[in-house]
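Please fill in the sequence for the structure shown.

STRUCTURE ENCODING:
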């Protein structure tokens, strides 16, 4: 079955065809580890995880590469301001390397909690400085880059004829719209830094042919992507905010060196809004996954919430919506866990419908409706079919929350009763309910599933 993706480069859906049959290379723009990733950031990684899972569902062998930016990302994406790592280092009174390790570890924990598959290759910018320097040297040799003494080396955008092909930006418009305080030593306001000179007091710096310095943000992704995936890549993902500057600049410097189309399919995820507005610390609506966990939410409730909006649509986050997602996820799991196991073949039409949905530019909201249909259907094979769907959706349907208070033997009685109900053995189900009641567990069967309340008998 063919797969279609919306390609940001062509601005239309295209049938996916990998460079090498049966194999796919994906580059994911990873985090800048100067602070905690917020839930808006994490929505982007849920999207890239779904992409990988869909390709694997279609029997592709996926090589997924994600970078960790631990140097070179300035406060403005347009190469202005201070390095985010250095600024955070001063604020927290820790070295940039200490901060990078701490926030990287936290980020990886959040991916695990969201059931996001770990990329096969995770590469740190500071481990690839030599690769970046080599790339800058090539750009200078080819005449695409120039040096500003006391400042750094810049890519000359007017030398690259296709600059703006991803974003639709025109160089004349960029020049006309440039701010008054833009670096007047640049040949064009849109020229971007490949390498920055570092003053002696700068914390992060490396030797180079041009003196001590550090790389620009954009060169990092190109250097690492080419190193691990080659000069031509199947898919590059990221947020829509990366399109006008970061990804546009990646294309320019990469294709200037290779003379080839660098990425065949550009896929971009939309923003997560909070209460219909931008997420901001100053507005006190900046949420991390840890914040949600502290409030008692299942991290996969947030994943479920994200899956109910298409990756190219903005999603509005509210705690009311998250409450609904948590309830729906609980009901979905309970429904699946009640289904009897079977060796019968699953519903071929429903499998086909699900497969068509995920292959149509990751139509995950439609795919979830087919998951619900499988769970509600209850026919032999439905349990196995829903489990297969969950290989893509990643909601851990088999997850059963362990009670912190209910003794293990009572938990086992509850499981036995659920199994009896699934097998329609009502006599055994009633017998087990009475046994539980005698031990202080009051069981209630509702249309939304089984609930229980534990009141241990008094020893008196």
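FILLED IN BY: designer on duty
SEQUENCE:
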């Amino acid at each position: 079955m063919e797969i279609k993706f919306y390609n940001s480069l062509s601005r239309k859906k295209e049938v996916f065809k990998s460079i090498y049959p049966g194999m796919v290379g994906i580059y994911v723009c990873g985090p800048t580890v100067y602070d905690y990733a917020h839930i808006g950031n994490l929505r982007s990684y849920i999207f890239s995880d779904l992409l990988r899972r869909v390709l694997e569902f279609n029997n592709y062998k996926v090589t997924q590469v994600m970078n960790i930016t631990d140097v070179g990302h300035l406060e403005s994406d347009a190469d202005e301001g201070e390095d985010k790592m250095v600024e955070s280092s001063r604020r927290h009174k820790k070295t940039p390397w200490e901060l990078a390790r701490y926030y990287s570890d936290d980020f990886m924990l959040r991916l695990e909690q969201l059931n996001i598959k770990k990329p096969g290759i995770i590469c740190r910018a500071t481990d690839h400085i030599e690769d970046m320097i080599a790339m800058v040297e090539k750009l200078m040799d080819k005449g695409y880059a120039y040096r500003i003494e006391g400042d750094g080396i810049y890519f000359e955008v007017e030398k690259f004829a296709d600059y703006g092909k991803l974003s639709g930006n025109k160089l004349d418009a960029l020049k006309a719209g440039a701010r008054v305080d833009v670096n007047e030593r640049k040949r064009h306001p849109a020229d971007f830094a490949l390498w920055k000179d570092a003053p002696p007091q700068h914390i992060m710096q490396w030797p180079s042919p041009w003196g001590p310095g550090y790389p620009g943000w954009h060169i990092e992704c190109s250097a690492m992507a080419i190193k691990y995936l080659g000069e031509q890549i199947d898919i590059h993902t990221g947020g829509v905010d990366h399109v006008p500057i970061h990804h546009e600049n990646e294309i320019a410097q990469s294709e200037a060196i290779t003379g080839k189309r660098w990425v065949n399919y550009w896929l971009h995820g939309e923003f997560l809004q909070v209460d219909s507005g931008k997420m901001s610390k100053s507005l006190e609506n900046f949420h991390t996954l840890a914040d949600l966990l502290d409030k008692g939410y299942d991290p996969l409730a947030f994943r479920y919430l994200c899956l109910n909006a298409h990756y190219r649509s903005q999603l509005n986050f509210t705690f009311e919506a998250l409450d609904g997602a948590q309830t729906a996820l609980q009901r979905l799991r309970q429904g699946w866990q009640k289904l009897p196991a079977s060796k019968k073949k699953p519903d071929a039409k429903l499998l086909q419908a699900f497969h068509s949905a995920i292959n149509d530019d990751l139509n995950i909201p439609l795919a979830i409706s087919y998951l619900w249909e499988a769970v509600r259907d209850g026919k032999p094979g439905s349990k196995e079919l829903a489990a297969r769907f969950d290989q893509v959706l990643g909601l851990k349907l088999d997850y059963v929350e362990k009670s912190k208070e209910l003794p293990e033997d009572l938990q086992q009685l509850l499981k036995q009763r659920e199994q009896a109900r699934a097998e329609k053995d009502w006599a055994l189900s009633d017998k087990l309910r009475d046994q539980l009641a005698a031990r202080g567990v009051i069981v209630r069967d509702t249309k939304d599933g089984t609930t229980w309340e534990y009141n241990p008998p008094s020893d008196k």
